[in-house]
Batch of 4 targets.
Target 1
Amino acid sequence: MNLYAVKAIYLFEMARTWRTLLQSIVSPVLSTSLYFVVFGAAIGSRIDEIEGVNYGSFLVPGLIMLSLLTQSLANASFGIYFPRFTGTIYEVLSAPISYVEILLGYVGAAATKSAMLGLIILATASFIVPVHIEHPVWMIVFLVLTCVTFSLLGFIIGIWAQSFEQLQLVPMLIVMPLAFLGGTFYSIEMLPEVWQKITLFNPVVYLISGFRWSFYEISDVHVAVSVVMTLGFLSIGLIIVAWIFRTGYRLKA
Amino acid sequence: MSTESIIEIRGLSKRYASGFEALKNIDLDIRRGEIFALLGPNGAGKTTLISIVCGIVTPTEGRVTVGGHDIIRDYRAARAKIGLVPQELTTDAFETVWATVSFSRGLFGKPPDPAHVEKVLKALSLWDKKDSKILALSGGMKRRVMIAKALSHEPEVLFLDEPTAGVDVELRQDMWNLVRELRDSGVTIILTTHYIEEAEEMADRVGVINRGQLAVVEDKAVLMRSFGKKQLTLHLAEKLPAVPSELDGYDLELNHDGSELIYTYDTHAARTGITALLGDLQRAGIAFKDLHTTQSSLEDIFVSLVRRSA
Ligand SMILES: Nc1ncnc2c1ncn2[C@@H]1O[C@H](COP(=O)(O)OP(=O)(O)OP(=O)(O)O)[C@@H](O)[C@H]1O
Ligand SMILES: [Mg+2]
């Protein structure tokens, strides 16, 4: 194991985070906090409790999840796309490192960054709306699994993309809508019957449901289903990445 | 310099996804400790060859070993020995010189060694720029940063793909001095260049590649000798309409207006035939007012090789 290389890539990526603190940490925390103020503290006071949880509190896990998904994708996709774009990827490709080590460095750094972000948002939210965490360990498990899975997905997008425009495409056109419709703002029981069924095809439902269960023990699907589905998404990501590395897809001519 | 090979390339071919065959069945050995110059026109396949050895491009056929390690099966050991300065000027932008060079060292699996990084930066006159962001450097400085990155992990083999493109005269001299020092410390150097006089000055051996095939691989001295021709030009006192028939036995040419007679001879033949020619000229009553000789350079050799293999 070339640990020096993993460390070099990891620290390089983390240095980028610190250098761009304002846009990588401060701005997502600020914009998510606005949701808590508007939908939680202001409008939320006029909305009924959902399954015994006050609406502002109900929003916390979903909104954290929303940030984790978008930030993991953005960080990881940019992290690998940018060296492809500038050409500095040559160095990583010519270095004595395995694909597993490349992944640990890039995906590890992106996941660390969004996990940190999630925790900061959680801390901020607790100042604005009441929050309690029933199962802290499960909360961390879901948080970490989600960060890793979506950083992996971001990594794949960063290798697939041929332009900055394409880099934005998947997060904007697919992941954002899925996240909004995946129960960030409502319990799926509030939907008409047909939509309750259709929603089950939305992977984000399982992530948010499991995460919310770890806070308030309320969920749209059984928590075991959430765990299995999350691990399933992670496996799919790993399979795609394995294929990318084996074929050199868009990395090597 | 020994004759032991540090790089062995056997039957190497590369067909790009476009179907273009950039390398055709290349066999090449690089000797430990030599400076090897790879010459060839644009698109000949030089960068492709280097990229395959360094692991950036996947070969279609053939095998390559570096220090006895197969570049695919035993890629870690093979790549750890290699430093690469690619042709394109590609650097990070927002990182400092120090950070980017230290990053390279880590990437190649070496523990941090500030003293070594310092030595490399000083050797490349980058020490006073160590805390500058790369985007604030000039092109020539960026080129040096790329060399520093390649040297950061103490490679045994250094690839320089057109290191002197866009580099000023002074820096070019510095660079060649550094290359000589590296060679003296035991590093094997493979370089490409379009400045043939550089290869002529620097290289121990020269390979000429054209359209994906090696036209020749030879000791520079041998190459220059075997292809080296000299020409004796005689500026005639009076113009001639044609080469006189008495002189048919010599390889003589008349220039366009008949004012110069050009004699081509082999410097390494047992006799050049100059004395005999001059005697015969006198007997034929041809007088000349001046003479000079020219020797073909590596550039002429290169051009004739590329034409021949085209
Ligand atoms: N990724 C690629 N896909 C398709 N063809 C390629 C690719 N890279 C290079 N080629 C082609 O392969 C041939 C050899 O290219 P290469 O870069 O090896 O040439 P070179 O000898 O380094 O030339 P130069 O002196 O211009 O740097 C060229 O015809 C080039 O167009
Ligand atoms: Mg080239």
Target 2
Amino acid sequence: MYEVFFRKFNEKVALLPEEEEFLKQYLTPKKLRKKQYLLQDDDVCKYSCFVEQGALRAYLVDEKGDEHITAFALEGWTIADLSSFIRQEPATLNIDALEDCELVLISKSAHDELMLSMPKYETYFRILITDAYLALQQRTTNIISLSSEQRYKVFTQMYQSIFQRVPQHMIASFMGLSPETLSRIRGRISKKK
Amino acid sequence: MSTKKTIAIIGASGNMGSAISKSLSKGNYRLLLCSDGQGKVEAVIADIKNSNPAADVESAECSAQASWEADIIISAVPYAAEKEVAAKIKEVANQKIVISIANPLNETYNGLVTAADTSAAEELQRLLPNSKVIKAFNTTFAADFATPVIDGKQVDAFIAGDDEEALQTVSEVVSVAGFSPIVAGDLSVSRTLENMQLLLIQLGMKYNYNWLAGWKILHN
Ligand SMILES: NC(=O)c1ccc[n+]([C@@H]2O[C@H](COP(=O)([O-])OP(=O)(O)OC[C@H]3O[C@@H](n4cnc5c(N)ncnc54)[C@H](OP(=O)(O)O)[C@@H]3O)[C@@H](O)[C@H]2O)c1
């Protein structure tokens, strides 16, 4: 139930068995079936969500009603509407399951308690946020400086696992491209090979 | 739009379990119904779908699986069965709201089997130390769910527990069921609430209320 969670945690900060037991008290195990929501916009994001098994996406819906995917999460990743989670204000993102999922949730109140009572959790969370920030910075830089074709190549290299599990139109949405543009790019790349 | 919550109802084939399931199926909830004998739960689901085809309700193979999927768990089994149920769901109910509806009545309905310094809810909390046990629905009869307004007054439903956020969430559940929620205090107030139902049962037998009776606080 918590296998991948503790493996990933230990990669960042090593825990003693009794520390694992202490941390376990604060975790919410949760199963979500494909297409079910973890969060719908306007609701407050009450949990940070670690994926033990399965896949989820976060997306926002614009004024025209079009969906834009902002993030994917697979096994070992964490997903949330961070600003809503931290500030406990209504979310702008929706998060739903792309496959049947097994999750480990940490509620905001459990998170707050752990931040105060367990220094190793604070370290874990800092590393998590730092990594996420670096990835975001990379993504922003790519959007500004690379051509769509280069971005597509970077994406396929960095996120191979997502690529194999998620339909093409969602990848297009994540990259900010129309599905038609994405398929033209793929066509050009395969001709060059 | 608020995120749909999943509620597991353990003992869903019983008087209370089926009444609670039926009334909550009107809300923005996904219901997972389980009991010992699966066949009986299917009948409850058929009944719900019959009156509300859009209801999001399913049977679950076992209480542990249902509780793993759930955000809220309702234990609608007899007090004597709660130890067994708690052992099955303990791991997956970690950090979750568990609603205790049990009244620990003795066999002749003239007293409670719990000691004066505890309650069914507190005993359940002891069995599930990392869950948020909330007392609710114990002062309402199963028949009240079909008729939550008696003699022109909306029946009150008392809630007790130690976690503010969980009390708020359960108040919403009680409202959806059609009752007027009143947060009575921390979990130890369950002792009073369980004794209130003992009194109501005794009065009901004495004066023939026919199980359609409830509490209402009169105030200005
Ligand atoms: N009836 C009321 O008006 C009322 C009012 C307030 C509170 N309550 C409380 O609500 C609870 C249920 O009462 P009830 O009148 O609904 O009783 P009931 O009709 O006898 O129903 C009991 C339910 O629990 C299930 N069950 C029994 N033992 C179990 C076990 N070991 N594991 C899993 N499930 C088990 C039964 O399943 P099977 O049918 O498959 O055996 C059934 O679904 C009690 O704690 C009672 O004090 C009742």
Target 3
Amino acid sequence: MSDTSTTQKSETQKFVDIRHAQKSYGELEVLKDISLTVDRGEIVAIIGPSGSGKSTLLRAINDLDPLTGGEVWLDGVQINKDLPHRQYEKHINEMRQQVGMVFQHFNLFPHLSVRENVTMAPKLLKGISDAEANALAEQQLTHVGMLERIDYYPSQLSGGQKQRVAIARALAMNPKLMLFDEATSALDPELVEEVNLVMKRLAEEHMTMIIVTHEMDFAASVCDRVIFMDKGVVVEEGPPSVVFKNPTQERTKEFLRKHLSQYAESAK
Amino acid sequence: MDFELILKVYPYFLEAAVVTVELSVLTIILGLICGALGTAARLSRFRVLRFLGAAYVSVFRGTPALIQLFLLYFGGPQIGIQLDAFEAGVIGLGLNIGAYMTETMRGAIIAIDHGQAEAARTLGLSKAQAFRKVTLPQALRLMIRPLGVNINAQIKGTALVAAISVVELTYTAQRYIGSTYKPFEMFFLAGILYIILITITGKGVAYLDRKVRLP
Ligand SMILES: Nc1ncnc2c1ncn2[C@@H]1O[C@H](COP(=O)(O)OP(=O)(O)OP(=O)(O)O)[C@@H](O)[C@H]1O
Ligand SMILES: [Mg+2]
């Protein structure tokens, strides 16, 4: 890697650029040479069978599960740079501030109030004042419809409310990119919609998002592009209208037959 | 039971109980320090420190506390460590309970869901910040009750230093038996005082636990 490549964006440099991502756990190769780009403001869904490597890929983007090969670039800067330990820690902490992540199991901090969950990182990392932090919390919680619960603790919230707070917590760092790993999979069916609505609103605001999901309807209605993964490779990708209705690959067709009965019905 | 005798000697037992309290407080403080250091070592990313932490725990939990005391107090001078009985008692028992506290503290820390630190790291916190702001506050709450168990054991465990002639509660009871020939009364009185200490401490631990409990 030359110095210029980190400082100057070439014309072809994509906003998110994953190059030849490879990940092995010992003998098991979980990601096999995946290359993938996402434009600024684009919303991409990753679908695929359990164990296909969706979470691993998502978690590789902010280096929670470091790749064993390949590069991840965000907005012209390589995230998984090869740096000495100390420098790398500093670099990755800065990069992670720009990438919001939402987990299946929320991972709210149970010892902090909703307000503190949202303000903890900005206060610590951006050195904002208490007044600014409160304004930020109110703004972000209003955005996800959770302002009335600002002084509750996570244990006092429903799953859907927890996830909306978790989204507000991520947004409070003002990220360039949001990653969602099955954000609604742990929710009771009646709570899924309130989280989906928040994500839809983010989409309307042109947040760049990579969404791992099992909800085909949601992917079809919100995402610009769908990526189907199986056994550590991207099998097929394209606009939802193509991937869902006219998939070219046999593996995609088979997966969709199992998971898309509802959607196929409604799409007819 | 000879209540008159009990009334006559109990002031001396109270004095001895003060020594037991001093021993308890000092050994618990030393134990907490050793426990924190031991935990840091056992969770360190350096293999040497992890080994030293594990060795500390298995040596002190794997041998009788009485042997540790004797080794320090009687064996110490042989290798140039001169301690009076009280000092040897504090250091020996403090190191001993510290090994148990190491396991208590480490257990509480590793019981915190890894997703917590992960969520903090995702926001851009460093490893140290994530530990300080997210893992530790939750682990501290979790370790209050089990540390209370260690503390309970330690208060009773101070009785061991009677064997190296520190004039605390158990030693005092033994000494008065020598002059009164009333072992039942003497041990009964000592037992009552231990129960009082244990009950007060137990209530304190329970109060602290309630005080920091999350909604
Ligand atoms: N820490 C790990 N050690 C070993 N193997 C792992 C580890 N994490 C994941 N794997 C393996 O990697 C493969 C991909 O896992 P991953 O979690 O990315 O799948 P996924 O597509 O997200 O599945 P799901 O839909 O069930 O969440 C699986 O075979 C899994 O067993
Ligand atoms: Mg997954």
Target 4
Amino acid sequence: MAGRLTGKVALVTGAGDPRSIGWGIAVALADEGADVIVNDINPAGLDTRVADLQAKGVRGLGIQGNIADVNAVEAMVAQGVAAFGRLDVLAANAGVIRWEHFLDITPQNARLVLDVNLKGTITCCRAAARQMIAQGEGGRIIITSSVQASMHFPVTPVYGATKHAMFPFVGTLALELAPHNITVNHIGPGWVRSALNDKAPDQQTAEGIEGNRQAVPLKRDGLPEEMGRAVAYYAGPDGAYVTGTYLRVDGGLGIGKYSI
Amino acid sequence: MNLANKTALLTGPMDALLIGVGKALHEAGADILLGHLPSDEQAAIVAAGQIGARVIALTPDNPDSLALQIEAAGEIDICIIAPHSHLYKPFMEVTDAEWDTAISGNFEQALWLSQALARQWIKAGRGGRIIFLSSIAARLPLTHLSAPGTTLGALRALAKMAAVDLAPHDITVNVIELGWVDTPALPTEVRSHILDGTPTGRLIDPAEVGALCVFLASELASSITGETHTLDGGYSLTRSAGTEPLVRG
Ligand SMILES: NC(=O)c1ccc[n+]([C@@H]2O[C@H](COP(=O)([O-])OP(=O)(O)OC[C@H]3O[C@@H](n4cnc5c(N)ncnc54)[C@H](O)[C@@H]3O)[C@@H](O)[C@H]2O)c1
């Protein structure tokens, strides 16, 4: 059965870990028939992810690479296009987090978060957009920002800053790439129990985990595939007229907290 | 509004905006310290001469030496930080190096300078005022302003989170998002286009930015923190997005 993304090629960054949002995105896109290139800085899970994609009847390709490295990003897009012939969808998803209040921010951690979440995301968008413009058939860029784009947690100021920055970034990009029929949007996951949060200070006790859950109006964690289906919406025909928007997928966590 | 016995540290490009703000703070009674990048020393000396300020070299891209420079500068009560990058360029043409410059000059340097000051104020048991000068591009997606917009958007969020943590120490953090300021750097061919979209029908005078800074730095404003203040003559109400003033000329 042809899916809504059959014949499309998608690249998802930060998708090597089976618990990750990136993998949830890759699965959701593959379920719609897309061929999927999965990237991760950590090569460990990539072969298995590719086998899982192929088992779904789509083409899969794993590319190890650091999105904070401009040359690696250019090489990744080139390698993906060489293998699958084109690029239609970019899910710029890879990101890192560090917990340091403002007074404790260290140059080392700030550098890492800025390099990956800001610079890396920007570089991926530019490299993918260049390919999409050359193809001349439009494209879809979906960035994984965070509920932190719109509500602030002082325990993660640099992370939150990189996520909030996606509002002006996505807006400007959506305007500038609209003439090429490339849409640009971002999704804001709430709590997803991926490895990202394993070291979160408030996730170290059962009470802390439960406390986070209780703060969510729908009283549960989000699942990576739920983030993935939001991306699939933006990537598919239903999302064709939607650009420059932000979709919280957070069980209501951000309701009434648009304070940035 | 009286800033007598207060010292204000102003940093950023040594342009008409910073000089105008310095003038306003000086007229309100504050001593002015112009913090300049090592490469801006000459410009800083000239600017300081116009407003009776002292100058001090800062290396805000090196947090360790910056902390020492701040300590050596003596007592500071107010810190005003202006962004360095206003790059106007289509996103697809912004180079990697230009992104680095924007991230450093509009976000990181402001982070390290405000953090160094806050740490010192807390150690000394005194309050303080941090004001980030920014642009409406941080809130409104303006075409060809992806680099300043994105990096100043990051700064706006940082200010909110810093404000929460610093409030118990009597330190306020505010952002002023500016529209089009009347400086010699603004090309004449874009003036009329900008004025068309500005309900007040005129550009922003640096003295007006200074007046808001004086207020935010004063005792009267001690409860105002983490806020973004738009100062744009209403430009963002009419020309909110997609404006390409330099392209349309
Ligand atoms: N988990 C949450 O609750 C949550 C909430 C909001 C937003 N997010 C965002 O979702 C995105 C995905 O996060 P996640 O929860 O799946 O995290 P995760 O840590 O589980 O997965 C991220 C993956 O990205 C990879 N990665 C890290 N740095 C990289 C780099 N420089 N280049 C390439 N790959 C890199 C990691 O190896 C990892 O496999 C991130 O942008 C994150 O900020 C997560």
